Amino acid sequence: MPSVLLIDDNRAVTEIIRALLQRNNYAVEIANSPAAALDALQRSRFNVIVCDVMMPGQDGFTLGRNIKSTPATADIPIVFLTALDTIEDEFEAYLSGAAAYMVKPFKARDLLGTLSSVLNGQTARKGASQGRLSVFQDGLRVLAAVTDRANRRAVADAPRDAGIDLDFSESFDEALQRLDRERFQMLIVDARLNGFSASAMADYMRYFALNLPVIVLGQGEPRPGFVYVSAEGKAVAALAQALKQVLQHRA
């Protein structure tokens, strides 16, 4: 039977999920902290990891990156269960190595279906809280202020595969002008562009009540609604894959 490492600091929650999984022919080991999870991964081999995000000491996304950076555990799929429900949180999950991302509350059948899909190597669709992604129902418009050719190609591949045209701007000023006039649901911007400032961008969005996630290629101070991704080639490719996975949940 498939083996599951269940990671959550809430013991009541882990007992409920463990009972569900055991009833459906899964072998389950519980870890109530990231440290306990890493210890379990050193001792045993698991088919899939089910992990909460908000935990004391180390969050699930950081733990996921640690697991994926370790050769012995890098191939174990991770399913994140979380109350975090923004698009940038979902991006962070996939950038941290998620095979699937589920927002609480979710139905038992959705978790079981997700685990089955992940174990069969399929792309798991998000099974709960679809209202968060209602912005996708009428189509997702993504504006990308990215001028580097290699990064453009990497970022453009995912929307193309999902049947969505991605709009590029030649400069940050042009991107702002388009945001002034047009409706977009996501912004991708290279932090190296002349005129870009994350703080100024945040002020602009706050003043004009613009609610959209901003994916920044580069470094910066954490702020709500912003996800930072290294501008290096591999990281941009990871961003493209994360974008593709999020877009696949439109249907």
Can you give a write-up of this model?
This protein is an alpha/beta fold. The protein has 2 domains: 3-131, Rossmann fold, CATH 3.40.50.2300; 138-250, 3-Layer(aba) Sandwich (Rossmann fold). It has helices at residues 11-23, 34-43, 60-68, 87-95, 108-119, 149-161, 172-181, 198-207, 233-247; strands spanning 3-7, 27-31, 48-52, 78-82, 98-103, 142-145, 166-168, 186-190, 214-217, 226-229. Strand 8, helix 8 and strand 9 (214-217) form a beta-alpha-beta unit. It is elongated and about 55 Å long. Residues 125-138 have low confidence and may be disordered.
Structural descriptors:
single chain, about 250 residues, alpha/beta, Rossmann fold, 2 domains, 5-stranded parallel sheet, 10 strands, about 20% strand
Low-confidence stretches: 125-138
Measure the end-to-end span. Answer: 31 Å
**Overall shape:** elongated
What pattern of helices and strands is seen along the backbone? Answer: EHEHEHEHEHEHEHEHEEH
Number of helices: 9
- Would you state the CATH class of the largest domain? Alpha Beta
Name the beta content range.
15-25%
Tell me roughly what share of residues is in helical segments: 40-55%
The side-by-side strand order for the widest beta sheet comes to 2-1-3-4-5
Number of domains: 2
How would you state the average pLDDT, rounded? 83
Second CATH tier, the architecture of the largest domain:
3-Layer(aba) Sandwich
CATH topology-level name of the largest domain: Rossmann fold
Corresponding CATH superfamily of the largest domain: Response regulator
The largest β sheet comes out as: 5 strands, parallel
Q: Structural class of the helix and strand makeup?
A: alpha/beta
